[in-house]
Specification:
The chain is an alpha/beta fold. The protein is built from 20 helices and six strands. The protein folds into three domains: 156 residues, P-loop containing nucleotide triphosphate hydrolases (Rossmann fold); 64 residues; 90 residues, Zinc Finger, Delta Prime, domain 3 (Up-down Bundle). Helix 4 links the parallel strand 3 and strand 4.
């Protein structure tokens, strides 16, 4: 017996995605790269957390495992319930085990929604093996889950389904529904469903509500189905992937790609101030001394974004993004401070030379550069014995001019 949100629902009233859920791994679509791993988990169950994008089969695998080993599946949502409900359910499972001598499976969907104390509440039961635990999350587990919980489970990553895999799933559903007139829509449904089988099947259900006359206007129907279908979760992998592509596009001097990823973030509801903060970091890390104006431009962009908000802030963010992409690049300041920090961490306390100190009796030996022609005089600033050079000049943009000016100034001998 499997206890879940659909357990007492008339099969005819189930959502199409639930109706089409495969009963065994043989009919489970996708995840070819980890097929052998999934077969081992199904045949020899252990505590496991499935993680990956929506609609890739995480819940389905929990149902398949429960069916394979003939255990009751108790589905718990971390979104809608907390510790009191969880403890009640666990107690019911333990009582059932004592009464019927049959173990259960606790499946927690969106496990990342649990805070640290809620996750910790599971640990004793997992340690004792009081039940089989299966979790599901759309977030990267190493940043969203406690280390203590991760250490007690196997982590299995599921990947987005391909359009071909989605089309196969939709095709099976269409056969069961006996709606052959919809077959021409399947390639577009598969392509536009972002690798999410549940979403694709839900869209197929919506498609069935259109009349034959409406279905003739193929383009209009698809536009209505997918008008608000784009996926962007500010707390999941998609968020990290897009901001990564945005940064790398600016670093790679591609303004078109930068604008595309900026548009994806804004369309997905990303916090514009987060984008502005990333641009300020990028200004020093990747543009740096090659165009120091970039830091001013991005600082101003952050200020404007906080003051005017969306939708007007999109223009300012685009301005800063294109400016950065077009700018010459230098990471000499970034690599310089990293090397200096590494040196400090690998050495004992570094003493300040006496002539640079404000407390040493040797401070009288300090030479004030402005007292000399050209505002420079030869003088040691690094502590004795340190020969390392942390700053490595680059020749892009205005850094070339700064380096030439520096070389010309420091060649003067007094």
């Amino acid at each position: 017996m499997q206890l879940d949100v659909f357990a007492k629902t008339d099969p005819h009233e189930l959502p199409l995605a639930a109706k089409m859920r495969p009963k065994d791994l043989e009919h489970f679509s996708g995840q070819g790269k980890i097929r052998a791993q999934l077969e081992k988990i199904v045949s020899h169950p252990r505590h496991v957390i499935f993680w990956g994008p929506p609609g890739t089969g995480k819940t389905t695998l929990a149902h398949i495992i429960a069916s394979k080993i003939d255990r009751e599946l108790h589905v718990f949502s971390a979104v809608t319930s907390g510790i009191p409900e969880l403890k009640r359910l666990i107690q019911e499972m333990l009582d059932h085990r004592r009464e019927f001598e049959k173990e259960s499976i606790l499946f927690i969907d969106e496990i990342h929604r649990f805070n640290k104390s809620q996750q910790d509440a599971l640990l004793p039961y997992l340690e004792n093996g009081d039940f089989l635990f299966i979790g599901a999350t759309t977030e990267y587990p190493h940043t969203s889950l406690n280390k203590a919980l991760i250490s007690r489970v196997s982590l299995v990553e599921l990947v987005q389904l391909s359009p071909a895999e989605l089309e196969e799933i939709l095709g099976r559903a269409l056969g069961d529904l006996n709606r052959p007139e919809l077959i021409s829509y399947l390639p577009e449904l598969a392509k536009l469903s972002n690798g999410d089988a549940r979403f694709a099947l839900n869209q197929l259900s919506r498609l069935m509500a259109f009349t034959n006359d409406e279905l003739i206007d193929h383009e209009k129907v698809l536009k209505e189905l997918f008008l608000h279908a784009r996926q962007y979760d500010k707390n999941a992998n998609r968020h990290h992937d897009v901001i990564s592509a945005f940064i790398k596009s600016i670093r790679g001097s591609d303004p078109d790609a930068a604008l595309l990823y900026l548009a994806i973030m804004l369309d997905g509801g990303e916090d514009p101030e987060f984008i502005a903060r990333r641009l300020m970091i990028l200004a020093s890390e990747d543009i740096g001394l090659a165009n120091s104006q970039a830091l001013q431009v991005t600082t101003n962009a952050h200020y404007v974004t906080t003051k005017i908000g969306m939708p007007e802030a999109r223009i300012t963010l685009a301005h800063a993004s294109v400016f950065m992409a077009l700018s010459p690049k230098s990471n000499s300041a970034y690599t310089g401070i990293n090397e200096a920090l590494r040196f400090v961490e690998e050495n004992p306390t570094i003493l300040v030379p006496g002539h640079l100190s404000s407390t040493s009796s040797e401070k009288k030996n300090y030479k004030y550069p402005h007292s000399f022609p050209g505002n420079w005089t030869e003088q040691d600033y690094l502590p004795s014995g340190i020969k390392e050079r942390f700053y490595q000049a680059q020749t892009n943009g205005s850094e070339r001019m700064l380096s030439e000016q520096h070389s010309q100034m420091t060649r003067k001998k007094i």
